[in-house]
Amino acid sequence: MKWISCTFFHWLQFFIVRFLLDRINIGYFEKMNNKSENLNSEDSIWPLIHEEIVKVSKDKFDDKHYADSVESAFKEINAKIKKIFTTITGTEADGADLMWKAFNDKSPVIILDDLSTESGRNVQMGYQHIFAGSIIGIRNPYAHANIKLEKEKAMHLLVLASHLMQMIDSATPGAVVPVAPKAKKAPGKNGSSKPNITVKIELGKWELRDKTKIPHQEVLVFSALNRGNEMTLDSYGILVKDNSTETEKDLRDIFSLGPAGYYKDEAGFSKEINNFDYPCEVSETKPCTVGKYMDGIIKLLAKDEYHGNVELIAYFKDIFGNIYKSKPYPINIDDWL
Q: Alpha helix locations (H) across the chain?
């Protein structure tokens, strides 16, 4: 994990340095130096920071909540891009997946440079990686773990967030035409029109992609299996049942296990997590499975003041609005903390 973290930040640093040096001229630094004699002071950086970042981050920074300040900045970036993406495409995406789609150099929703030139395509692809990497390597860790952040590093990250906001402001919207997903409505038992979809929720141990039996963190896996014809699932989520009340929880910000992988179930069998993009076509031979780290789910519930025994219910929703639920999965939150 340390090697992955170091590699990511070296890679991110390379792209940041390369593109900032290409795109920011000396005059910018002259103006920056004129604003303050001491650039290490937090008072000197705020005139340089994008106003939308100042709005969500400055108060937390001044209160010495440095990690929260950085988390809010990158959440604001995600929210702004998400709004643009949804407006143009009519569909939703979030997190790193949103960044890959929004800044795709083949059919971008947000255009950062002249894509008719090689240099412009390099800018588009480079910033696509920077935006996605910032979500994976900065927003997600600070959102889902109690990480201490030093003041100086927080200042550096806020400058990065500000620069990314400036890039969004100077971008051009792409001409993307939304395409409705092709779907089939599967007959259920006895010829009924409702699909015969079974949803399961179970706890497992994450394994490496090569199926070596080295266990990692606990992962909660949601799976949908359709024993009829193909059906398109539109989204998934989790319900928390506490005192007979079911409350929906948004899991989009909880770090998932990547595009695919394997986990060992409670019986010791190795199974695949496919983590398909949504909409997802589901059949008996092609289930839709999603894996989320259990510690992220527990922290979300604890933050919302859940404690003791609760039941988790996984659900999937199809494009017609039908909802399919799993049986309740009991957990004790206090035992996980």
A: 2-23, 26-35, 42-45, 51-62, 66-89, 95-102, 118-134, 140-144, 151-169, 294-303, 333-336
**Domain boundaries along the sequence of the chain:** 2-173, 189-336
CB 1 within 8 A of CB 137: no
CA 97, distance to chain mean position in Å, is 7
Do residues 253 and 144 lie in contact, with contact meaning Cβ atoms separated by under 8 Å? yes
Half-sphere exposure in the Cβ direction for 331 (13 Å, CA): 23
Q: Which residue type is seen at 178? A: P
Q: Give residues with Cβ within 8 angstroms of 48, minimum separation 6.
A: 32, 35, 159, 162
Place of tokens 């947000």: 110
Which CATH fold would you assign to the domain 189-336? Immunoglobulin-like (2.60.40)
d(CA 128, CA 122): 10
Straight-line distance from the first to the last Cα atom of the chain, in angstroms, rounded to the nearest whole number: 22
Confidence of residue 13 (pLDDT cuts 50, 70, 90): low
| pTM > 0.85: yes or no | no
**Is the Cβ–Cβ distance between 230 and 184 less than 8 Å?**
yes
- Reported as a single tens digit per residue, the pLDDT across 277-305 is 777 888 777 788 888 888 888 888 888 88
Residue 6 has pLDDT above 50, yes or no: no
Q: Which two tokens stand for residue 135?
A: 């979500």
Q: Could you tell me which residues come within 8 angstroms of residue 153 by beta carbon, excluding any fewer than 6 positions away?
A: 66
For residue 286, give every residue at least 6 positions away whose Cβ sits within 8 Å of its Cβ, in sequence order, or none: none
* Cβ proximity of 222 and 289 under 8 Å: yes
